[in-house]
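INTERNAL AUDIT FORM
Audit reference: QA-55
Scope: verify that the stored structure record matches its stored sequence.
Auditor: D.O.
Record contents follow.
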Amino acid sequence: MIHNEPKPSGFAFPLILVLVVMAAMIGGLAMTAGHTPATRVWVPATSTAL
């Protein structure tokens, strides 16, 4: 009689993949959180009063 051996479910690879993706997302957010682009506003040198 041939018995099928129980196979591991194989959840380790998807779990590791999800953790790596989450770490990359958190790292990307952390790198961009402190950097805010400078806002530039153009103001004319002389104003004309009507």
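Auditor finding: record pair retrieved intact. The helical segments are 12-33.
Action required: none
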